[in-house]
Design brief:
Blueprint: H1 2-10, H2 22-43, E1 45-50, E2 56-60, H3 70-93, H4 106-122, E3 141-142, E4 148-149, H5 154-171, H6 176-194, H7 208-224, H8 231-243, E5 257-258, E6 261-262, H9 263-266, E7 279-280, E8 283-284, H10 286-305, H11 322-330, H12 356-364, H13 369-386, H14 402-421, H15 430-435, H16 454-460, E9 465-467, E10 472-476, E11 480-487, E12 492-499, E13 512-513, E14 516-517, E15 529-538, E16 543-551, E17 556-564, E18 569-577, E19 581-582, E20 585-587, E21 590-593, E22 602-606, E23 609-613, E24 619-622, E25 625-628, E26 632-636, E27 642-651, E28 654-660, E29 662-664, E30 668-669, E31 674-681, H17 685-696
């Protein structure tokens, strides 16, 4: 058994000598990132005394430090897992692949991981050796009367516990009683999944994500507890939960053979719309679109690494509809820096690059060259953001504090594992065939994955894409990515324009505000409402959206046209109808990042000159055009036009200013407001000025 465990780690010694391949480069970067993170981890670790057995315990402090909720438990176990992983890696391989920060050594890692693991299992409902800091226990359990008490998401946290246990166990071992307590905990969490129907639903609140993490705990229990009488049931449930992640209506009649049954026999219900898009938090959310794939990949990893005397097997049910989700959704929204566009904005930290392990899963398991290219770019940005912090944490100003750090570290570690267990090298070689021979025949037919180029990827996806179920449309040209979203769940209409160069992708960021956001602006700081249905018109490379909003608290109609044309322009036109007086016009708004991760100051060029601003002070200026950093040009047609830049706020963990191409605090009648704006990417200030002069004579006054 020992040599099977060691295989996964000892592959680190097998490097390609002539030229480092993507696998080794990605793995090395992930390892160093996790090592750097331990400085932050140590800073939030606290001893918590002893449990009732007399074992020393501790935890990694979340905002809810040591408490029984997601914030407390998930944070503790994610960071414990990373510390245990690094400790294990050092023990197997030494420390030549990475450097630990000053003041951190392998004994620190071991002590923190062991104490945090003990705190976690000691405070579980099935163990009860001590209470959490809020006086409660955590987890799902069955009481003496046979009634189940379920804690939402607790099964997800057990995955991190299982990996932590394994990393520690490989070298130090765990006492028999500790092993029995953790086994009891795992069995309880897994048995609950056998006691209930598998959930499903797609409108507003998908169950795809939840089914993904439920498959995690079932994999953990099945892989760890082979002799348990429920083991066959856990395996069956793991497959069924895993399959019912990315499900669509058509699966109810699909006769494809998957893991010994027809797909329709595994199918329970629908979690995706017919166009393979997904909704959570009541709107289309690309983080949730990709996280299902991450969770299913982690189930696959668990069945490989945690297994006891069981040959590896790639369950096809766990990759069901990965290809369709990739082809129809994820790849269609990928930006030049590896980020996934957020057409509806975001409701947590922006620029997390949390799709990293989803890219790794597609690259390593599905052998997708586009995913490998995007993964490498995504990792670049994730590490760049980590380098803005002094302590190895992954971002400044996180939305949920240490929990965000733990989740990010978890994903970096799983990315490493995917490249270790399913490398993108040629698997037909004798080296990999020997180690993967059982149950992997089809997988071993795969050759090496060579990352595609951005230009080739962009050209293959250049056709305009409409997501009809979400009322989202996007177009990609040589210079820019642009999309528009009409979200009835979120009750918001907004757009985004992103240059197709890595260094410029984060100038204009996703933004939503009281029913609108980028491009359409707002009036009187009042809620804007959607009215009726928009009209989408598309060609191979362009699109146009016509719609109506009710602005100024519903008192004024705003009829608009949003056009992405074939000449690298986004054109926004609108006219207000109504007699109510309008104050505080903020027309054509775009949100501009002014953050240490992106750029803390922006240079704005306009008809009267230029200025540099961090957005902390609102500055107004008269001009019909403005250019940001000689990269993005905006033109406003109209006489005596006033613009403004400022209103900086922390939005989704990014310092963000607002640029208002039409700005006014003076009272005006709604019927007098008629606007037309042009937005260009990859344009210098001089080019913007020249473009304004050529457009002026043919545009509305």
């Amino acid at each position: 058994m020992k040599h099977l465990i060691a295989f996964f780690f000892l592959l680190a010694a097998v490097q390609v000598q002539a030229e480092e391949r993507e696998d080794s480069l990605i793995q090395q970067r992930c390892l160093q990132s996790l090592a750097d993170f331990t400085s932050y981890a140590k800073s939030i670790y606290t001893d918590a005394g002893k449990n009732s057995r007399g074992d020393a315990v501790g935890y990694f402090k979340a905002v809810s430090a040591g408490q029984s909720n997601e914030d407390g438990v998930r944070t503790n176990l994610d960071i414990a897992m990373v510390c245990a992983f690094l400790y294990n890696y050092i023990e197997f391989n030494g420390c030549s692949e990475f450097n630990l920060p000053h003041g951190i050594n392998k004994d620190n890692l071991r002590q923190m991981a062991c104490s945090a693991l003990r705190y976690a299992y000691s405070t579980h409902q099935t163990v009860r050796l001590m209470r959490c800091t809020d006086g409660k226990y955590w987890g799902t359990y069955q009481d003496e009367l046979g009634q189940w008490h379920h804690q939402w998401e607790s099964s997800l946290w057990v995955l991190s516990m299982a990996f932590t246990k394994k990393f520690i166990e490989d070298f130090d071992g765990l006492g028999k009683e500790e092993q029995e307590l953790i086994a009891k905990l795992m069995a309880s969490e897994a048995d609950f999944q056998l006691s209930r129907p598998i959930p499903f639903g797609f409108q507003g609140d998908t169950k795809a994500e939840e089914n993904g993490w439920e498959s995690n705990v079932l994999a953990v229990a099945w892989a760890n507890l082979i002799a348990h009488p429920h083991s066959p049931q856990w395996q069956e449930a793991m497959i069924r939960y895993g399959f019912n992640g990315y499900t669509v209506d058509a699966d109810a009649n699909d006769t494809t053979m998957i893991d010994g049954k027809q797909a329709r026999e595994w199918y329970v219900g629908t979690n995706l719309y017919p166009d393979y898009t997904l909704q959570n938090h009541n709107y289309f959310h690309t983080s949730y679109q990709n996280v299902v794939m991450q969770e299913q990949a982690e189930t696959i990893l668990a069945t490989y690494y945690l297994k006891e005397y069981r040959p590896p097997k790639l369950h096809q049910s766990l990759t069901w509809h990965w290809q369709e989700v990739w082809d129809e959704v994820l790849s269609q929204l990928a930006l030049a820096d590896g980020e996934l566009a957020m057409p509806n904005g975001n409701d947590w930290s922006m620029f997390l690059y949390d799709q990293l392990p989803a890219y790794a899963a597609m690259a390593c398991i599905k052998r997708n060259p586009d995913a490998l290219m995007l993964e490498m770019r995504c990792l670049d940005q994730l590490l760049k953001r980590q380098h803005t912090t002094p302590d190895g944490s992954y971002m400044l100003n996180p939305d949920i504090g240490p929990r965000r750090m733990g989740v990010t570290a978890h994903r970096v570690m799983m990315t490493w594992f995917l490249h270790r267990l399913f490398p993108t090298e040629d698997l037909r070689s004798e080296k990999f065939a020997d180690d993967h021979r059982n149950g992997m025949t089809d997988y071993l037919k795969m050759g090496a994955v060579i990352p595609s180029t951005w230009q080739d990827f962009r050209q293959r996806l250049s056709k305009t894409k409409l997501f009809p179920c979400q009322q989202i449309v996007r177009a990609i040209s040589e210079d820019r990515f642009v999309c528009f979203s009409w979200s009835e769940g979120l009750k918001n209409a907004t757009g985004i324009i992103v240059p197709n160069t890595v260094e410029d992708t984060k100038i204009i960021i996703p933004y939503k505000y009281k029913g609108t956001g980028n491009f359409l602006g707002c009036y009187n700081n009042a809620q804007t409402r959607l009215s009726g249905k928009p009209q989408f018109t598309t060609t191979d490379s362009t699109f146009q959206v016509r719609g109506r909003l009710m602005a100024a608290g519903g008192k004024v109609a705003q009829d608009f046209t949003f056009t992405a044309d074939a000449h690298n322009a986004v054109v926004v036109e609108y006219q207000l109808q109504g007699n109510d007086t309008i104050f505080e016009e903020r027309g054509g708004t775009v949100a501009v990042s002014v953050d240490p991760f992106t750029k803390t100051e922006r240079t704005l060029y306009y008809e009267g000159g230029q200025f540099v601003s961090d957005g902390s002070q609102l500055r107004t200026f008269h001009s019909n055009w403005v250019n940001i950093d000689n990269r993005i040009g905006i033109i406003a047609i109209g006489e005596n036009n006033e613009m403004a830049f400022g209103d900086r706020h922390l939005i989704n963990s990014i310092q963000t200013a607002r640029l208002y191409p039409a700005y006014s605090n003076s009272p005006r009648q709604a019927s007098q407001v008629k606007r037309k704006f042009y937005y260009f990417t990859g344009q210098t200030a001089q080019e913007t000025q020249q473009m304004f002069r050529s457009l002026r004579s043919s545009s509305i006054p």
